[in-house]
């Protein structure tokens, strides 16, 4: 009997030793993984150094009703929604740490998108553009990947989604990165990111769990706060906004509404949007909103967002949607 007890004690000690060694090894692995990760300057999300230190990518997304929904848009860390020709809007997604397997539909450039992307020094992915935008790209020597002229082999017509040209031009991040290398573009970008809270923070402000932005009578964007996941679920023209490829809801941790001056400049309805300027805005996160202001001093300067005390705002870590709207657009927040 004593021998059995002794053997059992030895076995117990051995198990404890193995358990402790295993835990130490796991802790060491976790420490090593954490040491090799840093925060993305675009979202504050932790990712490998190799991904965070590479060059951002700015992708133009078609938002015509015949183009919906978009593939890979959920993987962008920052997304802008701008007016284009009435009554439509268009998206520009900024990518760094994620590598979507499908992106699209891809659409054309406008000058104000370029003024915005200069803040990120990215690879610019598009399909053509207005004449002014194309001149702008050439003059500024933008690292450009155009599906209509200089990198057609990086794009494909997606015949599986039931869309017709021009609303079916797609690509993926692997093709973009390969085109970046093939065209000799720099592997890193020179830009400044956002400030982020260390911990998830409830901002000081009024309740904002439902947001509706009316771009015009035929075009609206809405958000509804999901209290469980602490993100805003996105709706476009009254329909839930879904990622076409990943089949997941489009969500935002932060929403910035930036009010700007706009005016039509030609018979096609193309617009001039004053981004090198200053104005009012709203910051929304975690069910709260507060008034802010914005300023951009030069075309390649960073847009700065300030609270009412004049301090640069901090964002919560996660995806940010920046809604560029006209000063006369209707905003309903409840």
From TrEMBL:
SUPFAM superfamilies: YerB-like (SSF159774). Residues 43-185, 211-322 form the DUF3048 domain. InterPro entries: DUF3048_C, DUF3048_N, YerB-like_sf. This is DUF3048 domain-containing protein.
């Amino acid at each position: 009997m004593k021998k059995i007890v002794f053997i059992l004690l030895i076995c117990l000690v051995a198990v404890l030793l193995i358990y402790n060694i295993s835990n130490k090894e796991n802790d060491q692995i976790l420490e090593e993984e954490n040491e090799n990760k840093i925060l993305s300057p675009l979202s504050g999300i932790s990712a490998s150094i190799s991904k965070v230190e590479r060059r951002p990518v700015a992708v133009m997304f078609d938002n015509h009703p015949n183009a919906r929904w978009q593939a890979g848009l959920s993987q962008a860390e920052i997304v802008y929604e701008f007016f284009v020709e009435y009554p439509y809007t268009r998206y520009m997604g900024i990518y760094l740490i994620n590598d979507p397997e499908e992106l699209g539909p891809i659409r054309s450039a406008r000058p104000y998108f370029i003024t915005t992307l200069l803040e990120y020094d990215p690879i610019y992915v598009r399909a053509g553009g207005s004449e002014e935008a194309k001149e702008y790209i050439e003059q500024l020597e933008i690292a450009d990947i155009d599906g209509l002229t200089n990198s057609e082999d990086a794009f494909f017509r997606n015949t599986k989604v039931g869309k017709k040209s021009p609303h079916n031009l797609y690509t993926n991040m692997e093709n973009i990165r390969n085109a970046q290398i093939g065209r000799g573009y720099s592997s890193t970008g020179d830009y400044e990111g956002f400030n982020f809270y260390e911990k998830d923070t409830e901002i000081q402000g009024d309740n904002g769990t439902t947001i509706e932005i009316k771009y015009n009578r035929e075009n609206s964007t809405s958000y509804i706060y999901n209290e469980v996941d602490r993100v805003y679920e996105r709706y476009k023209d009254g329909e839930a906004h879904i990622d076409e490829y990943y089949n997941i809801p489009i969500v935002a941790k932060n929403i910035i509404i930036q009010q700007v001056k706009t005016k039509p400049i030609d018979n096609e309805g193309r617009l001039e949007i004053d981004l090198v300027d200053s104005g009012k805005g709203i910051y929304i996160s975690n069910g709260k909103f507060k008034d802010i202001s914005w300023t951009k001093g030069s075309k390649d300067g960073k847009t700065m967002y300030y609270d009412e005390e004049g301090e640069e705002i901090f964002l919560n870590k996660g995806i940010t949607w920046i809604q560029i709207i006209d000063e006369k657009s209707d905003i309903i927040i409840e």
